[in-house]
Design goal:
The protein is 17% helix and 43% strand. The chain is an alpha+beta fold and 104 residues long. The two termini are 19 Å apart.
């Protein structure tokens, strides 16, 4: 697993420094992803994708490509339901449609 990050300072129009950060993750590819699980909150307005803190307060959507990762989200899913008062659903998507391939 490797993490790559770049931080650039750009002067903003109001002459203050603006910091932008690009972070990407390039894990080893060990299997073909044929299904995804997602943690959704649900209320009278509809559904939304839940997110949770991962590292240093960074929030990422709770989406899993394997059952082990899904299982690691379960405590957070229960906490979201309890603290938000909303119903939380675990859903599985099994239809794969490749819409684009981006080459280096």
């Amino acid at each position: 697993m490797s993490w790559n990050a770049a931080v650039r300072r750009k002067p903003a129009q109001n002459k203050q420094k603006q910091i932008t950060m690009s972070i990407y993750h390039t894990p080893p590819n060990t299997f073909r992803i044929t299904q995804l699980w997602a943690v959704l909150s649900s209320d009278e307005g509809g559904e939304g994708l839940c997110a949770g803190p991962v590292i240093n307060g960074v929030m990422l959507p709770l989406i899993a490509a394997d059952e082990a990762r899904l299982e690691s989200f379960m405590p957070m899913a229960h906490k979201i339901a309890k603290e938000s008062g909303k119903k939380v659903k675990i859903v599985r998507f099994t239809v794969r449609e490749e819409i684009m391939e981006i080459n280096p």
